[in-house]
Amino acid sequence: MQKPALKQIYEELDKKEKKRLKIKYFVPNLWAPIGENVNFGRPEKISVNPYAYYKEHIGKILHFNFKKIERKKEEPIIYNSFLRSTAAFDHDGDGRIGGVPRGGNKKDITLNNDGIRESGTFLKAIAQLGHIKRLGCNCVYLLPITKIGKFGNKGNAGSPYAIKNPYEIDLSLADTLIDADINTQFKAFVEACHLVGIKVVLEFAFRTASRDSDWATEHPDWFYWISAEVKDRKNNLDAKGFGSPVFTKEVLKKIKKQVAKRDFLNLPEPPENYKNFYYLPPSSDSIKQDKSGKLTGVSMAPSHPRALAPSSNVEFFEATSKNSSINEIRDTRYERRTKVMLPGAFADWPPDDVQPPWSDVTYLRMYKYKGKCDEYNYMAYNTIRMYEKKLSRDKYANKSLWKKIERIIPYYQKEFNIDGVLIDMGHAMPQKLMKNIISIAKKNKKDFLFLSENFHISEESAQQGYHAVMGYAWSTEHNRDKIIPFLKEAGTKKIPVKFLATGENHDTPRSAARRGGDKICKNSFLINAFIPNGVLFIHSGFELAEKEPLNTGLDFTSAEIKKYKNKPLGLFDITGYHWLNKNSIFKFIQDIMYLRDDYRDIISANPSKSYKILKTNNKNIVGFSRYGKKDGKKTALLVLINYSAKKAKFKIDVCKGGSCARPKQGKICDYLSGKEHKIKGKYFEGALNAYEGKVYVGKA
Length: 700
What we know:
Blueprint: H1 5-16, E1 26-28, E2 45-47, H2 50-62, E3 78-81, H3 83-86, H4 122-127, H5 129-134, E4 139-142, E5 146-148, E6 163-169, H6 182-195, E7 199-205, E8 208-210, H7 214-218, E9 225-227, H8 249-260, H9 272-275, E10 278-279, E11 288-289, E12 295-299, H10 314-320, E13 338-341, E14 361-363, H11 381-384, H12 399-406, H13 408-416, E15 420-424, H14 431-444, E16 449-452, H15 459-464, E17 468-469, H16 480-490, E18 498-501, H17 518-530, E19 534-539, H18 558-563, H19 586-598, H20 600-603, E20 611-614, E21 621-630, E22 633-642, E23 648-653, E24 667-670, E25 676-678, E26 683-688, E27 693-699
Parallel strand pairs: 3-4, 3-19, 4-7, 7-15, 15-16, 16-17, 17-18, 18-19
Antiparallel strand pairs: 1-2, 5-6, 8-14, 9-10, 9-13, 11-12, 12-13, 20-21, 21-22, 22-27, 23-26, 24-25, 24-27
Helix pairs in contact: 1-2, 1-6, 17-19
């Protein structure tokens, strides 16, 4: 029987511990081993022998006495890690992560001058498990860890969503201190998580691949191809350049109206000049790769018969429709040899999105039309998302591709024992394919967790088998006008599926970067900790009051996007977090988590009987209560947030609607400060400072 991976690494570290390093190796004191306490008010870097340091971490995990508390359907409390940045640190203290500044030479920029990998690794992620447990989390969700492509990469490291091979883990996540291979290091991480009661969720992107995908040379028919001579469009007035198809106002109106009705039959197609960019897949043996990683091949003909002179060209397309590519077709009448390449993907909805093509990823071809010609061989809203009904039939499914995708999650279940996945844009996948993916995974592991990136809290996601969707809490919590409608929806009976309760994610601005700073972080966490139907979600760095975003994909102003245009962004560049920030909100999170756990039964109760939005008598103060019985006695929590930059007063009827029985002693307690407040009659009156949030506890 093979020795567990974590034990293998422990033994390797034990052998190397006596090795005297002539270099300094710093780590943040917040990465203290599991079970240890940390002085959050004094973050500092400490010098360690890395072999002894990681051995101590693993040793304590191997002997950690995790007693699972039996609870019905225990909800995940998620810590979202982008490993490359989350577990990065300036180990040699030279003021930067890695050895080469942005724009430097092409050597391994994750290494410092001593050959130590300073970007995040699985070994360092194991050392962070104590930190994650101290936050109260029981689930780690990792952004994609799979092999990253090189061609068209953004930044100096590339996006984790530019997936070159979903069956391989990116080698940059292996720690250079140990010799264990990348798979063993990941297995050790999963084993460590399980030993301390943490589930592991991975994110996968199944609709796209990197433009130098390993799959493209073996299965060119799984992709779309355009002429290699075509340049990307710089603006939507450039009809000769490649980009998302441009529609007239009239056609756009028709598209949106038809899609709103969920009528996908005879959806308007892109203009002819756009379709003519596309060619039939090249033969596998014609595909070459240059030094940059760019793949090109030779196609025998355009996709559309009208682009060919011979009137009998239908014969050509009938022949090609019976083959995965044109390897076996050699008819000199139609041989117009054209050099082709994989096009960059683009925003697929709405169809009038004007952003330029993405340089690093391309769309996978989910359906292949097998009519008289390959008339749907193009990337557009009606072939990659709102699938045309004539196209999205079982007989046109790209079945070999579907099978390859369906086997990805089972591979990670079997090889690494993962506990769940988040599907990037799963709601835009062919629904039959998604149904197969979910069914197969849950057959292997009944309690397997499925999360969706869908921003809509929809019945469709619930029916497909998702536990929770991303939702839109992140876009509302910092805005007084948006938060009230969201709080109302969150507490309704009709909400079909849970949502991720978070004020930020890897695509949005950091909460601490918004007006109000770390106070906004605290307010966001107060809402998320007690809101009904939410799955509590901490985006790594949030606890540090991190201000630098990983990406500028959602909810950024034009000015903010311009600000970060020439700055390193973690999703594309080698960056790290500010682990030494003295303004972290770690202690605040811990305190709220203690309260949340103490009131778990009330928080998880039916919101129709345990949740009420409060009238505060002040438009700038928003609040809600969670109420019910605890230890046989009526009790309630009141969450109040001041959205104003000035001090604001409130007046709340604590008896109205049963949301909070009036305390017999006529007092209510500020949970964090311990200060008691008197209740005048049936009213609770008080004031909150600028951007201040508080949680009060009242008992009958």
